[in-house]
Amino acid sequence: YMYQGTVYIYRCLSGSTTLLGSSAVTWSDAQRGQFRAIMSGSWIGVHVEGKFALSVTDTGITSGQPGVGYY
Fold first, then answer.
1. How many beta carbons lie within 10 A of that of residue 34, not counting itself?
2. Is 52 or 71 the better-scoring residue by pLDDT?
3. Contacts of 17 (CB under 8 A, 6+ apart)
4. Of 2, 25, 45, 65, which alpha carbon lies 20 to 30 A from 33's?
């Protein structure tokens, strides 16, 4: 069975949430939902099941700790 979903990248800052980008993704029943986020400077990339899914550049946050969530 093939599953379909969407990967979203948001910036959450001072109570405000901004959508930076989104991309449709698919994966098979045999795959386990592996997700990887890579952050370097202002660049953020996402891989799902070992395949590149989405990247964005965000200069809105210059310091602090990144967070990753899913549902």
1. 11
2. 52
3. 10, 11
4. 65
pTM score of the predicted model:
0.79
**Token pair 């210059």 is at which residue?**
62
Q: pLDDT of 14-66, one tens digit each? A: 889 999 999 998 877 766 668 888 988 889 999 988 889 999 999 988 787 77
What's the distance, Cα to Cα, between the start and end of the chain in Å? Answer: 20
Q: How far apart are the C-alpha atoms of 27 and 15, rounded to whole Å?
A: 33
DSSP assignment of 4-71, as one string? Answer: EEEEEEEEEETTEEEEEEEEEEEEETTS---EEEEEETTEEEEEETTEEEEEEE--S--SS-------
Q: Which residue's structure tokens are 């948001």?
A: 10
